Amino acid sequence: MTTRRKFLLWSGAALATPALPRMALAQQWPARPIRAMVPFGPGSTIDIIGRIVLEPLSAALGQPIVIENRGGAGGSIGTAVVAKAEPDGHTILIHASAHSAAPAVYSNLPYDTVRDFSGVSVFGTVPNVTVIAPAKGIKTLKELVEAARKGSFTFASAGVGSATHWAAERLRLAAGFEAVHVPFRGGPEALTEVATGRVDFMSIGISSGLPFIRSGRLIPLAVSTVKRSSALPDVPTTTEAGYPGSDYTFWNGMLVPAKTPRAIVNRLHAEMNKVLAQPAVVEKLKTQGVEPMPLTPAEFDAVIAAEVKNNIALVKTLGLKFN
Asked: Which of 242, 159, 171 is nearest to 203 (CA)?
């Protein structure tokens, strides 16, 4: 009997016997390919990290995981799709800290960031690196700040409310300079504009920025972590550069629609723990500057709820206005 045939038989039995143990539900799942929504474009930090972990997860679950990139509006467009999806474990969301920043930026989100999703697993945290084109003649973060204070500067992001937007705003506010925000639909497009010099600078996840840095197309000025990143050990932190309060490290992880059965959430979490412990995965994430951040699903939910509250309060306190 095929796996699909078994699932159909089990589904019929479940209608007649609602009290079927949750463990049985988890054992029958997944019954078909899983759709993984990445609400940013290919080559974005979360896309790169998501692909690293989803390939071995697919092997572990015995079903293909089909990645769908749907960017725009700081990740909220793709996220809304998952919020409305059937909560049966066959649609998952691969997101980052932009998820908890969105309520502070968008007043009319078509979903509730806290109530409509359940956290599954955090892949790790990723520092941002502030980059600029060599042609700008700026080699340190201090030089960038001084130049921005004197003239009209612009900064790129992967969209309003994205982690790249949030990181640059925190740096700008901590360093005390003005700059015009130029949002794009994704990190790669924004990086290209910075590399050409059409936009002055950007704070981007190390995973996306490394290819541009290694090729010499962009100069790394500082990383947003409290400690230096192992991926860029010679690059100082923004705090070292003299701007305390400018650090911003964002998480990358997996969520599902809120009503997804807990047995499936727990199974996904357990399988992801195994994936994140695989030496090959550990090494790949390390080369992308990813630092471990092990959390239970409940702890992940609590982190998101706290971040949403803090981000909204921060925006109000600072009087930030978003279009």
From this structure: 171
> Which residues are CB-contacts of 255 (< 8 A; sequence separation ≥ 6)?
82, 92, 93, 95, 99, 117, 118, 119, 120, 300
Q: Which two tokens stand for residue 312?
A: 């909204």
Beta-bridge partners for 202: 131, 156
pLDDT at position 26: 60
Q: Is the pLDDT of residue 147 over 60?
A: yes
133: left (phi over 0), alpha (psi -120 to 50) or beta: beta
Residue matched to tokens 């790949």 = 284
Distance CA 250, CA 184 (A): 19
Q: Which of 108, 92, 37 is nearest to 69 (CA)?
A: 37
Which residue type, as a one-letter code, is found at position 32?
A: R
187 pLDDT exceeds 50? Answer: yes
* Runs of H (alpha helix) within the chain: 3-16, 22-28, 45-61, 76-83, 98-105, 141-150, 163-175, 187-196, 206-214, 262-276, 279-287, 297-318
- What's the CA gap between 87 and 212, in Å, rounded? 39
In order of their start, the domains of the chain are 3-125+251-318 (3.40.190.150), 127-223 (3.40.190.10)
